[in-house]
Amino acid sequence: MQSRDIAKEVYDLAASSSAVAPRVKEALKVIEDTLDDYGEDHVSISFNGGKDCTVLLHLYVGVLARRLSSRPSRIRAVYIPLPSPFSALEAFIDETARAYGLDLYRCEPPAEQPVESVPKTAANTPAVERGDPVQRQKGGEGMRHALQLYKDRFPYIEAILVGTRKGDPHGATLQYRNPCDPGWPSFERVHPIINWSYNDVWVFLRALKVPYCSLYDEGYTSIGSTYNTFPNPALRIQPSPSPLARCPNTPRSSRSPPTPRPPASPTRPSSMAASSRSPSTRARLRYRPAYELVDGALERAGRASAVTAPLP
After folding, report:
1. Which one, out of 60, 82, 180, 258, has a CA that is 20 to 30 A from the CA of 148?
2. What is the CA radius of gyration of the chain?
3. Average pLDDT of the segment spanning 237-265
4. What is the pLDDT of residue 266?
C-alpha cells in the first residue's frame, strides 16, 4: 500500500464514528507533536513485530506521509531482540521492514544481560513445555546497554516512539511522553497508544487490514521469548465429544474398554501437565485467533512468569 493511502485511511478512521476513532485521533496528535518538537530526522520508532508496535508503525507512516506528501526513503527504527525469538516473528519483522521502508537497526544486548527472563537451561524445547523453572533476571540492564549502543551509533536520535499501553507491565504510570531514567541514554520515550485497550488494537488492525504476525492467528496474544510464551489457554478450542460420549444408550458391551492411564511423572509439576504432553498431542490442540479474546485482562495469560524490562 502506498504511504499516502495509509495516511488517508488512518486520518479518515480518526474522523469517523468508529469506537476507536478517539484513540486514533489522540495517537496521531501525540506523533504530530513529537515531530513538531524534534523533526523527522531526530525521531525513531521501536519495532519488535508485536501487535502494538505494528499499530504504532502504521500510524507513524500515516503521519509522515501527510506531513511530507510522501513517505521518507527510510524510516529510522530500532529492534532490540529478546532471547530465543520466534522464527515467525523474526520473518514478520523482516517483511514489515521491507514493506514500510524501515531503516531498522538490530541492537543486540550482551548474552549475559538479556532484555527478558530466560530459563536456566537453554535447550531447543521451550521451558514452558519442559516444565523447567524460569530464571528471574533483571532485564533492565540489557535494555539499557542496547539503548546505549543505539545512542552511540545514532547520537542525533532524541525521541523514540514506543507501543506501550497502560495495561502492559510497567505501563500503568506512563504518560504520553517520558524522559528516560537518570543513568540511561538521553532519549524521550513517546507512547502514542498508551491509553489504548487490547480490543482497540485489534479493531484498528482489522478495520484497516494491517498485516500482523501470523502467531496471533494461532492463539498467541502476547509474544515474548519462546522460553516463556505459549498460546493463550483462554482461546483453546475444546474438542467435540466422541460419538460414544454423545450416545448414553450405547450398550456397554459394544464400547471399547478404557485404556489404562500411566501414572504421572513425579519429576514434572502437575501444573505443567498440559504443556508437557508429547509433540503429537500438542499438535492436536487448536486455538482461536487473538482478536477473539473477549477479556483483555487475559492478554498475558499465555506468558510464563518472567521479568520484561520496559524502555525506561
Report:
1. 60
2. 22
3. 54
4. 37
Sequence letter at residue 169: P
Query: Which residues are CB-contacts of 74 (< 8 A; sequence separation ≥ 6)?
Result: 101, 102, 103
Q: Given this structure, which CATH class describes domain 3-218?
A: alpha beta
Q: Where are the alpha helices (DSSP H) in the chain?
A: 3-14, 21-38, 51-68, 87-100, 127-130, 140-153, 198-207, 243-246, 279-284
CB atoms within 10 A of CB 255: 10
pLDDT digits (tens, 9 = 90+) for 109-126: 665 444 555 444 444 344
Stretch 155-181: mean pLDDT: 89
Q: How confident is the model at residue 83, as a pLDDT?
A: 86
Rounded to whole angstroms, how far apart are CA atoms 279 and 7?
45
Residue 1 has pLDDT above 70, yes or no: no
Q: What is the pLDDT of residues 130-145, one digit of tens each?
A: 344 433 334 477 788 8
Measuring CA to CA, how many Å separate 153 from each of 148, 156, 183? Answer: 8, 9, 18
Burial of 42 (0-12, 13-18, 19+ CB in 10 A): middle
| Mean pLDDT over each residue of the chain, to the nearest integer | 80
Written as one letter, the residue type at 22 is P
Parse the chain into domains and list their residue ranges.
3-218
What is the 8-class DSSP label of residue 183? Answer: T
Grid coordinates of 8: 488517508
Look-up of cell digits 550482551: 110
Query: In the numeric block, which cell numbers belong to residue 250?
Result: 450405547
Residue 107 is placed in which grid cell?
541492537
Q: Measured between alpha carbons, how far is 164 from 99 in angstroms, rounded to an integer?
A: 23
CA distance 10 to 23: 11
- Per-residue exposure over 257-284, b if at least 16 CB sit within 10 Å of its own CB, e if not: eeeeeeeeeeeeeeebeebbeeeeeeee
